[in-house]
From TrEMBL:
One of its GO terms (cellular component) is cytoplasm. The gene is LOC109707596. It comes from Ananas comosus (Pineapple). Pfam families: Hexapep (PF00132), SATase_N (PF06426). InterPro entries: Hexapep, Hexapep_transf_CS, LbH_SAT, Ser_AcTrfase_N, Ser_AcTrfase_N_sf, Ser_O-AcTrfase, Serine_acetyltransferase, Trimer_LpxA-like_sf. Belongs to the transferase hexapeptide repeat family. SUPFAM superfamilies: Trimeric LpxA-like enzymes (SSF51161). The keyword NADP does not apply. PANTHER family: SERINE ACETYLTRANSFERASE. Its EC number is 2.3.1.30. This is serine O-acetyltransferase. The lineage of its organism: Eukaryota, Viridiplantae, Streptophyta, Embryophyta, Tracheophyta. Residues 60-164 form the Serine acetyltransferase N-terminal domain. Signal peptide: none annotated.
Amino acid sequence: MPRVSYSSSSPADAASSSISSLRLGLRKCPSESIFPIYAMENARPNSMSRAILDSAGDPIWEAVRVEAKSEAENEPILSSFLYASVLSHDCLERALCFVLANRLQNPTLLATQLMDIFDDVMMSDTNIRRSIRLDAQAFKDRDPACAQYSWALLYLKGYHSLQSYRIAHVLWNRGRKVLALALQSRISEVFAVDIHPAARIGEGILLDHGTGLVIGETAVVGNWVSLMQGVTLGGTGKEHGDRHPKIGQGALIGAGATILGNIVVGEGAMIAAGSLVLKDVPPHSMAVGNPAKIVGFSEDEDPSFTMKHDARKDYFEHVAACKRTNGCIYNEKK
C-alpha cells in the first residue's frame, strides 16, 4: 500500500494534504446530519473555519449552557462547579481552558498559568476552535453514555485528554517542545492517556474511555476515527524516523488493539478488539486476531460512525457471502 504524507501541523491543513490513495484527510462527512452545523463546506477547510467561527450562533456552546443551567437547578450541590466551569464563561474555548487547567494543575504547572497558556493557544488557533466542536459532536453522537454535550466538556477524560493533546501539539509546533512534553507527562498522569505532542490527529475524533491509549510520535490519525480504550499505535523497536501507524479516516480501532510499525490502516477499516496488526490493512476491511487477518470487507458505512466492532463470525460470513454474490471476491492471506 502507498505510504501516507501528513506534513501539516493542524487538523484542517493535514486533512487537505496529498493522500489520495487512502484519503486520510478531510472529506464530506458520510451524513451531514451527524455534524449538522460544523460539517458545512468541509471539503474546503478555510470556508469551514469561517462557517463555524463567524456564524451568528454556536449551537454546541448554547446547548452546553442550557444543559449546565438545568443541571445546576436539578443538583444544587454542583451549582458552584457548573457556574465556575461553564456559566461564568463567554465561549466554549474559555470554559474548556478552565476545565483542563483545573484538571492538569500541579505544584509545577499552576492552574492560573495553564489558563493563560491554554487561552492563548485556543483563542489564536481556528483549527483547534473547530476541532473541539467536531470532537464534542463525535462524543455525543457515537458514545451512548454521553447524553449531553456538557458531559463531554465536564466529565469525560477521553475528551479532556484529546483537547489537552491538541494544545500540546500546537505548543510543540511553535517550538515550545519542553512545555509540550511536560503537558504530555501530566496528561498521562491524570488521564492515563499517552499521546506524543508531535503525533498528528484529525478532527471529529472519539476516544472512548481513553484509559491506556498510547499514540506514538510519528503516528497519524485521520478525521472521524474512533479509538477504544487500551489501543496502542506504536513502533516496533528503537529506530528513529517515521515509525508509527497511519490510520485512515473513518476507521474504528477496537479495545486493546495493538498496531505496530509504519503501516497503514485504510480508510473505513475496522480493527477488532485485542488484535495485533503488523501489516497494512486495506480500506473498508475488517482485521481480526493475533496476528490480525483480513476476514471481510464492508463499504456501506464508516465503522467509526456505526461503532459496530463485535467481529462476530456470522457477521463476517454474511459480509463475505454478499461480496461473493456481487462478484467482489477477497483473498485472505493464510
